[in-house]
Amino acid sequence: MSVAQQLQKKITDRTAVVGVMGLGYVGLPLIREFCSNGFNAIGFDVDEEKVRLLKAGKSYIKHLPASIFNPWIKSGQFVPTTDMSQIKKADCILICVPTPLDKMREPDMRFVRGTSETIAKHMRKGQLIVLESTTYPGTTREICKPLFDARGFELEKDYFLAFSPEREDPGRVDFTTGTIPKVVGGMGPESTKLACALYGGAVKHVVPVSSAEVAEACKIVENVYRCINIALVNELKICFDRMGIDVWEVIEAAKTKPFGFQAFYPGPGLGGHCIPIDPFYLSWKAREFGVTTRFIELAGEINTSMPEYVINRVAEALNERTKPLKGSSILVLGLAYKKDVDDVRESPSVELIELLEERGAKVAYHDPFIPKAKPMREHNITHLKSVALTPENLRKFDCVLISTDHSNVDYGMVVKHAQLVVDSRNACGKVQDPRRRKVVVKA
Predict the structure, then answer these.
(1) What SS3 state is found at 360?
(2) 0.90 exceeded by the pTM?
(3) Would you give the DSSP letter of residue 101?
(4) Taking a C-beta distance cutoff of 8 angstroms, is the pair 111, 133 a contact?
(5) Mean pLDDT of 412-437
(6) Distance CA 194, CA 184 (A)
(7) Span 226-442: which CATH code?
(8) Reduced to 3 states, what is the DSSP secondary structure of residue 186?
């Protein structure tokens, strides 16, 4: 029996041990699906605090409660660890690490390269390795494969390598990891076959493609599509605002057409781990081939300019009330990058807070899911804690800036008691209070 056949049998029998590199918003949902379907899993992370919390029966991600993982941890079906030597115990290794941009807005591959080096150090014959981190086409072949080959193992014979893009959308309830179709592209036919078999044991629908490069490009296209369309409505928001037209009402009217239109909504900037970052991976790679991705570059310019636009709207609204931005007290409502999650990665709220502080405003925030600001790679607002959202507190601030439209916030109370509301999400659009027209400014 060949090495591939042996691994195929383990996967089919569910005796294959799944190792997940990175216990964050992508890694933990994968462990949930594999353990739910009878696989044993080892979760690896360099963050000792994450591992400690999981072992103590606590979760650090709102939509992934500890109650999901505790039975598996107690039984030994799921083992969280920082001990990378345990990689040799895994039959299938899934890489779920960050792929941020550096200060020059170019791909920062430190985490993918570092994790691949760690796997190479401990890997053994007969393992399947799958990169899930969103990246540019060619990453699996150009970065991961040479590191594994250097161990003296032969691809498609001694080890197997594939790319399968993560498609997580934290907080979403209509789709989960198990129900979102899983695109899989291997570095050869055996790699594709084994990766499809593995994911087929945990998700409902697997979509094989002809190569790792196609799978890598697939995820980039998904996020470029969203990035460009969000940039379009952000630009239209500015345009229609000058015309005195409500862009939100325009979009609601346009989406009544049953074909040829998909609604995207403007906001204070892009957030999350995908849309603000991934398109620039493609534009960077395209330059290697002498291609300029003009749509991506323009969309990036528009989307990254939105926080400045919102701050200018705050300043204008305060000026109309004879108050300067400098010295004014501003409550930023929502710290997460989108509604109903506790995820602050690339959140425009963070940039809004920093811009307000740079201009001399006194800033506080309220977020029901984030009691204390979290450390981030590029930002530092850890001096802030969420303040209570009460009528008394609302009256204390010169302006309330709605950056994230969490569902469990009482916007009627905000309108009733705030002196001024700058609403970048149309969160107050359905509030019936007659004061709304007087105190709410859309941004």
Answers:
(1) coil
(2) yes
(3) B
(4) yes
(5) 95
(6) 10
(7) 3.40.50.720
(8) strand
